[in-house]
Amino acid sequence: MRTQRFSIISRFGPYLFFALYAVIGLFLFNDYGCGPDEGMERQTSLVNFRYVIETLQIPVPESTTTWLAYLPDLHEYRDRYYGIALHFPLVVIESLFNFQMQPIEFYSLRHFYTFLNYFIAMICFYRLLLFRFKAVHWALLGTLMVILTPRFFAESFYNNKDILFFAWYIISLAFILRWFHTKSYKNAALTGIILAFTCNTRLNGIVFYPLIIAFVFLEFLNQKRISKQTLVSVLFLFLVSASVFYIITPNFWEHPIQTALETFAFNRRHPNHGSTGNLFLGKLVDTTQVWYFIPVWITITTPFIYLFYSGIGFFIVLWQQVKNRFIKFQNFSELMDLFVISSGFLPIIVIIAFDVIIYNGWRHCYFAYSAIVYLAVAGIVRICRGSDNPSFWHSAKKVGLIFFLVLSFGFNVIWIWVNHPYEYVYFNPFASKYSVYFSGDYWGVASRDLLQYIIDHDSRPQIIIDHSYTQAGSINRGLLAESDRARINLVYEKENADYILFSRDDKKPEEANIPGFEKIFSIQVDDDEIGIVLRKTGNE
Q: How does it sit in the membrane (predicted)?
C-alpha cells in the first residue's frame, strides 16, 4: 500500500507542483515595479523591429511606419549589441495593437512573459535533476530550492535580462546533456536552436561551445574512440546554432564578423556602464579591483543551508573526479556532474581573472545558481544514500537534513510572504543586519509603490517630484493610472519639488538626510529602508 501511494505521488506530484506554481505566478506577476532596463530592452527591441521590417520590406500600416520613424537607426544605436530575440514577440504583439497599448499593459505583459520563460526553465531543471538523480522527490526538492530563493522569486517576474539568461542557461544545460546522452540529429538541432537563443540573450552563453568540444574530447579519451556520427552530430549542432543565431540577430546581418568582434569588446568592458560606484562592505568600490566581489555576494544572498549542502556536494563530486583524474567517467552521471560544475563556475573564474566589468550585486553571474543548487541536491542525496546498512548515525543525519531543509523552506516562505514584493533585496540571516553596507534596491523597483503613496495621500492636481535619487521614477510613473500620471511632474532638481523619491541603491542610509525635506514614508525590509518618500518641509 505504501509503495502504491508513493507511486501515485511520483506520478501526479510534479503536475500538481507545477500547476500550483503557475497559479501563484499568475496571481503575482503584476505586483512588481519596473527597473530601468525594462524600458531599455523594450526600446532596443523596437529599434530592431524597425530595422527588420525596413530591411525585409515587410508591409505595415502607415501609422506604424510613422510611429517607428522616431526611433534611431539600428547601426547608430548605442545598445545595438544586446540581443532581442526573446523580446521580439512582445514587440510584435504591440504592433498588432498599433502601438497603442498603455505602459501598464505592455510592462505587465513583459512581466508575465519573463515569468513564463522562468517557469519553462524550472520544468527543464526538474527534468535535468530527475534524469541525474532518478527520483521525483529529489528533482522536486532541487526545483523548489530555486523557486524559494527570495531574490530569484521576485526577479523571475521583472528581471528581463539576467533572470531571462539564467532561465535559458538552464534550458541549454538540459538539452546539451540530453544531446550528450543521445547524439541524434534531432537532439543536435534542438540543442543548436536553444543555444542560439541563449547566446542572443547574453553572449556569455558562448561558453557552452568550447565546453561541448572539451567534453566530446573527454569522451574520446574515455572510450579510446570517437564515432563518425558523433563528429557529424557536433558539426550539425554548431551549424544549426550559428545559422539560427545569425537569423535572430539583425545587427549581424550586414557585417557578421566585424559585428561579432565589436560585440565581444562591448560585453567585456560594458562601455555604457562603469565598474565603480558599487556599494560593497560599506564602500563604493571598483568591482574589477575586488576579486572576491562575486563570491561574497553569492554567500550573503543565498540561503545558508543551500550553500552548506552545495559545499558537501562540491567536495563529493570533486573527490570522484580526482579519483577519475578528470578524464575517466564510470557512468553518464559523472559526466553530467563535471559538465554542470564547469558551466557554472568556469565563467566566473574567467570574469574574475580578466577583470570583466560587473555591477549591481552578482546578477550578471546568476547563471551559476543552477550549478550551486545542483550540487546541493547531490550533497543531500549522498547524505541520504550514504550507507547500505542503516545505522543510528545514518538515521540521525537524515532526520537532521530533513529538519534543516524544512526550517529553511519555512523561513523562506514566511520571509517572502512578509516582504512581498521586495524579495529582491534578500540577505540571508547571517548577513541581513549588514545589508545597509551593500547595494540595495539598485534598480529602484520600489519606486512604483513610493509614487503610489504620494498619489494616495496628495490630492492636488499637480505634484512636482524630484526623481534624481532613483533610477526608475519615470518608468514606474507609467504603471500608474492614466489620471494619476497626468498629475505627476517628474523633475531632476529639488528646489521646486514637493517630494523626493529616494532609492537606497548604492547610496548609504544617511544620504537620505536632505536639507529642506523630511521623511514621511519608507519601505523597509529587515533593517534596511530601501525606498523613501521625502516631503518638502512645511509642505503638509
A: Multi-pass membrane protein
Quick one: which of 534, 305, 296 has its CA closest to 438? 296
Q: What is the DSSP code string of 45-91?
A: HHHHHHHHHHHTT----HHHHHHHTTSPPGGG-TTTTS--TTTHHHH
- The answer to whether 196 and 203 are in contact (CB under 8 A) is no
Going across the sheet that includes 499-503, the strands are 488-491, 463-469, 499-503, 528-536, 517-525
> Which cell numbers in the block locate residue 476?
514606474
Report the C-alpha gap between 163 and 468 in whole angstroms: 27
Q: Are 194 and 149 in contact (CB under 8 A)?
A: no
For the segment 50-73, the average pLDDT, to the nearest whole number, is 92
Say if strands 278-280 and 517-525 run parallel, antiparallel, or are unpaired. Answer: unpaired
Q: Please list, in sequence order, all residues whose beta carbon lies within 8 angstroms of the beta carbon of residue 305, skipping any fewer than 6 positions away.
A: 404, 405, 407, 408
Say how far apart CA 10 and CA 374 lie, in whole Å: 20
Question: Do 491 and 474 form a contact (C-beta atoms < 8 A)?
Answer: no
Phi and psi at 284, nearest 5°, equal: -80, 120
Whether 148 and 423 have beta carbons less than 8 Å apart is answered as no
Q: How many Cα atoms occupy the beta-carbon half-sphere of 51 within 13 Å? A: 22
- 253-283 pLDDT, tens per residue? 999 999 999 988 887 777 656 667 899 999 9
Q: Provide the β-strand partners of residue 525.
A: 528
- Cα separation, 384 vs 382, in Å, equals 5
- The H or E element spanning position 463 is strand 463-469
* Rg of the chain over all Cα atoms, to the nearest angstrom: 25
CA dist 529 and 540 (Å) reads 22
Residue 470 contacts residue 503 (beta carbons within 8 Å): yes
Query: What are the grid coordinates assigned to 174, written together?
Result: 538540459
Cβ proximity of 522 and 529 under 8 Å: yes
Average pLDDT, the chain: 92
| SS3 category, 491 | strand
> For the chain, how long is the longest CA-to-CA vector?
82
Q: pLDDT tens digits, residue range 416-435?
A: 999 999 999 999 999 999 99
Question: C-alpha grid cell for residue 80?
Answer: 545595438
CA atoms of 28 and 23, how far apart (whole Å): 9
